């Protein structure tokens, strides 16, 4: 990667990935694009273009203008929103992906896009879910992700496009709030913990899902993209994870910092059903073997960092011991 175009760059992942990429590869070598513009650091700290990923001509025009060698395709609609708007989700998630792959093929670019734990379904083995296993998702988002993984493989086999991808678990971060996902509760809970010392979870007790802290997710993208191509057996996409917990587990971790934190439940049937169709925990050994995947943050280390960063961000007083 030398000159990188990022789509959906103002979202939860992009807003932090842009800054990290600019730090490593140089600000002018990272072109942030999104369907909207704002005054965030990601939009202001280097080249930015408005780009709707369903507009192939505009994508080609911007990629050509900046002579990029890599496309990181992030623009998509997440699981809960996709379930509410399935046709819109199909058109954006598949149409945008096809345009990004076609741009990569025509301009001979390296290509990255994230898949998700949402690519798995109820018939997938739930614990220590293997890299290669049954994938029959029951959500529109999951159907998009499985089809996307296969399409990216197809572009590699058919056209030699250097496609790579990760099956991300729920990502937890303190910079940009997530939107429209099933795992969003694991971010919301920290905001409410520092502000109100209580949280009402829409995910039920005993529902385990994989999660990862954003700094580890960003490192994983860069490590995979910089990995020696000849070592990659699974290109699209690698299981990656750093932790697995249910609402009680994250609450217990928060209580180590905020002892009087309270958790109760008001379960949302739609997001609960999605969560129950996903694995409890992933096996990330293929990623470890093929390109050295590793992570730094386990649940308690992440909790400590999230709480401290959110208190700073929200100008909250740090309680005296
Ligand atoms: P996000 O919803 O936070 O951001 C998506 C961005 O895409 C937004 O800034 C939005 O404005 C933009 N966008 C929407 N429609 C667009 C269009 N037509 N053209 C251009 N931009 C458009 O999403 P995210 O959490 O940053 O996720 C990025 C990718 O990572 C997605 O493919 C998602 O499925 C995947 N992923 C995310 C997570 C997670 O927990 N965040 C986990 C697994 C996989
Ligand atoms: N965090 C994402 C979601 O819940 C997982 O892909 O949709």
Notable traits:
321 residues; Rossmann fold; UDP-galactose 4-epimerase, domain 1; 7-stranded parallel sheet; 3-stranded mixed sheet; globular; binds nicotinamide-adenine-dinucleotide; binds serine
Largest sheet: 7 strands, parallel
Percent in strands: 15-25%
Spatial strand order of the main sheet: 3-2-1-4-5-6-10
Number of helical regions? 12
Q: How many whole angstroms does the radius of gyration measure?
A: 19 Å
The number of domains is 2
What portion of residues is helical?
Answer: 40-55%
Would you mind describing this structure in some detail?
- The structure is a single chain.
- With 321 residues, the protein is α/β, with parallel strands linked by helices.
- The chain has 2 domains: 4-170 and 213-239, Rossmann fold, CATH 3.40.50; 171-211 and 243-280 and 298-313, UDP-galactose 4-epimerase, domain 1 (Alpha-Beta Complex), CATH 3.90.25.
- Helices cover 43% and strands 16% of the residues.
- The chain has a 7-stranded parallel beta sheet with strand order 3-2-1-4-5-6-10, sandwiched between helices.
- Helix 1 links the parallel strand 1 and strand 2 (30-34).
- Helix 5 runs parallel beside helix 6 (140-159), helix 7 (185-196) runs parallel beside helix 9 (247-255) and helix 7 (185-196) packs across helix 12 (299-313).
- The N and C termini lie far apart (46 Å).
- The mean pLDDT is 97.
- Residues 7-8, 10-14, 34-36, 51-54, 74-76, 78, 92, 114, 116, 168, 170-171, 178-181, 183 line the site of nicotinamide-adenine-dinucleotide.
